[in-house]
Amino acid sequence: MNKLCLFLIFFSFSLVFSESPAPYSKIRSELLLDPSILRTTEIDTEHFIRWNEGRIQWMSDPVHLYTYSSEGVDDTEWGCAWRAIQTALASYEENVPGFVYLYENFGGREFLEKTAEELYVIDEEWIAPHESWHMWADPFVGQMILHDYGLVTELVALNGIVASNSPSVHQGTIDYTSFKERVEKHFQENGCPIVIDNGTYAMNILGAGSDDDSFFLLIGDPHLILLRDEHPLNGLYIVELDVSGSQISIDYPAVHHHFDPGSYTAFQQFGLSNWMILFSKGK
């Protein structure tokens, strides 16, 4: 093999390694939006009461919903769990950590491993969010963050563990009947927004209600487009489920402002699917 061939092989390998994605620990500059693009997160109470018609009987108070492309950061397609964590924190923290602060201080391996040791025995290799290009989070990451803020948490699996890059740890598996009982009790005792994740979409349960054989969930969904209008109920919908957890109906007043319709179709067989569910309450 001549020197030219060796050089070309070496040069090719150099290109591959130089173009490999670097680990992220900071929000990339191209994801920062015009600082004037700020989105309100507070739910319009008057419009909500008129729309609800008594279906949701118990809910978090106050309710602030954090969504894609808020606070001057474009996290479309990857930041839904971080937003769900913000929404959960907003019920307890007067100064809710901004998206950049939350991401840059609570996503790395060092923080997660240290905090996880206080709640679990982690005996497997796993990838922390900032060590992979997709910059993910999930309810496990949320549990570590809420725990660090001094909140009492419990991470459970509905029906079974969800496939994800997170450690396969939880504090119990529940069925749909137990889920309904847990959710009602949680909100009756002034619990904060629940973080849920099916391995693809992370969202919040903000409240619940029941009527005969139906169970209602108030969903706060962060998957909104940047160029949405100022609809007072952006990101909210009410899902009605039957006794098995299958969807009877969904009432989504601002559906045309949604980013990915796959998130709200995830509730069609909610009670029969696998979800990770993070409950948290006061200190």
If you had to describe this structure to a student in words, what would you say it looks like?
With 283 residues, the protein is α+β, with helices and mostly antiparallel strands. It has one domain: Cathepsin B, Chain A (Alpha-Beta Complex), CATH 3.90.70.130. Helix content is 27%, strand content 18%. It is built from 8 helices and 9 strands. Strands 1, 2, 3, 4, 5, 6, 7, 8 and 9 form a 9-stranded mixed sheet that branches. A hairpin with a 2-residue loop joins strand 5 and strand 6. The protein starts with a helix and ends with a strand. The N terminus is likely disordered.
Short recap of the structure:
The chain has one domain (22-281): Cathepsin B, Chain A. The protein is built from eight helices and nine strands. It has helices at residues 3-18, 45-52, 80-89, 99-106, 109-116, 139-148, 176-188, 262-265; strands spanning 58-59, 152-158, 173-174, 194-197, 202-211, 214-220, 236-241, 247-251, 275-281.
Sum up the structure in keywords:
283 residues, alpha+beta, Cathepsin B, Chain A, nine-stranded mixed sheet, globular
Layout of strands and helices, then pairs:
Layout: H1 3-18, H2 45-52, E1 58-59, H3 80-89, H4 99-106, H5 109-116, H6 139-148, E2 152-158, E3 173-174, H7 176-188, E4 194-197, E5 202-211, E6 214-220, E7 236-241, E8 247-251, H8 262-265, E9 275-281
Parallel strand pairs: 2-3
Antiparallel strand pairs: 1-5, 2-9, 4-5, 4-9, 5-6, 6-7, 7-8
